[in-house]
Write a structure and sequence with these properties.
Largest sheet: 9 strands, mixed
Strand content: 5-15%
Distance between the termini: 58 Å
Number of strands: 13
Helix content: 40-55%
Mean pLDDT: 91
Structural class: alpha/beta
Radius of gyration: 27 Å
Low-confidence stretches: none
Amino acid sequence: MKRLILFLLKYVLFWLLLFTFFRILFLVFYHTLIHNESIPFTETIKVFYHALNLDLSFLGYLMIVPFFILLINLFINRPFFQKILDGISFFYIVLCSLISMGEIGIYDEWRTKLNYKALAYLEHPSEVFNSISRLKFALLITVLVSVIALWIFLYRKWFRYPYKIKIAHLWQKISFILISPFILFYFIRGGLQGIPISQSDAWFSNHLILNDVAVNPSWNLMANMIKMKDLLNENPFVSFDDNYAQTIVNEMHKVEKDTTISILTTKKPNIVLIILESWPAAVIESIGGDNYIAPNFNKLEKEGILFNHLYSSGNRSQQGMASIFGGFPAIPITTLTEYPEKYSSLPSLTKILNKNGWNSSFYFGGQLRYGNIKSYIIYNEFNRIIEGENFSNSVPRGKLGVHDEFLFERNLNDLKNEKQPFFSAMFTMSSHSPYDQPIQNIIKKDVSELPFLNSVFYTDHALGDYFEEARKQSWFANTLFIIVSDHSHVSHKNYPLQTFNYHQIPMLFVGNVIKPEFKGTKYEKTSSQTDLPATLLKQLGLDASAFIWSKNLFNPYSPEFAYFEMNEGVGWKSKDGLFVYDKLHDKFLQKELDSINAQKTLIQGKAYLQEVFRQFLSF
């Protein structure tokens, strides 16, 4: 009996060491993030203590199958049980290593743990591969293979099950049979307390990265996928009675007067929509950035209206597409584009423009199937869709597709023969990792995220060239250009993902059709990219009532607020303050509220999250 107990203790120790090893590896990979947030070592080291409960919980799940193997082996002592247990343990080592290294691989870009949403991208592994540099990919694969080999070796050397263990006394066997399930249950549940263990048990810091490191990646992925199983049947973000939440949200969108300030000289302009991949406000000088990153965008501001406090509703491109073309806010946990059967429940900016005489087109230099964006773009019924495969093989490409300068060039050439008025959307790509733009790095400052900043500089340079050529075209004088980011990105400012500073993005209305008195002005109210459809349609004199989540920003009576989804919660900002709340773990990640209206603001944000997810489920 002692040998069996010794083996079980060693087996538990093995897995705790493996989990700890990957935790250390994560901290090594992202030591610069720790440094940039000025996190003291004394707080970082607490990660290992706070991780223990979730590690033991996941270990409880891992040991269910080995427990039954050991149970059988108590009565039938044969060598092949050792081989079976070896095979199961090797499989666990590979699986946990893949999950942990996968999380390390995506964290640099996404600043979030591996979850169901991330796994959806594995349906198109070529896009995942192309999104990272060959050097980083090779490093991750090398580390992964080495780690798997190392831990299999360590297991075989010191932790392997000695099948010759024999228990002669029946009472000892019965004791093992009775006590072991209780111990496993205790581990899995995290104790005997009233509420089972959750990610919250590992959260301890105001620094999100430390909480992310503390949460066991395999346990987190398993829990996230279990939640997804019931996702379409139950709203996990309920804080109030549904009728009450709907009333709150409806009241928030009411306007005293349905009117608009007309900023355009015509109701029938050409419209060119330029969607910038991953541009945060931090790259724009006039909204908190620096002047050396996007100088051409800075120049264009003098010819248009800059939205100073605009936020993305999500953190992925496909979320941005639904917000920009459908006016629908991003939802936590999953993305609308993964559910084509729900598209028809959304209004479409493109369809309305098509119906009213605009000729529509969509341009992208890569593969639109990434994130299932293509199905959503097709649903919007663009008259013409151009993506990477529609460019000549002679056009220079990076790993993800055609570089932005050639995307702009193709658009200019096609619009020369386009029937007016037209609505042409372009989605840039070069500012997406692996940042392999075709010019040398211009920015050489000692700042973080330098490859990303140089990719933004390149796209900005291509944008400047595009406008220089567009000014020579006959259609330019009657064209409204809208430049907006699809979502934000970590920048040299190192804003944490759970902040509004991170989610702030640029949007600019620019062009000769803007009335002179509005050129060079700024829109100062809090707003969202979801407000684009209603704002544009009202300027064109078209009905925007179908876009119930979108506000007309040029209506002086429009309410002032912005929302973003925070994986399993909500970010909310109004004139009375802001907060970021993780609903599933009941934790505030940021809270700056006016003392008088704090409760009202909390109710609004939570009701908004509940209602947007309820409506998504109802589609």
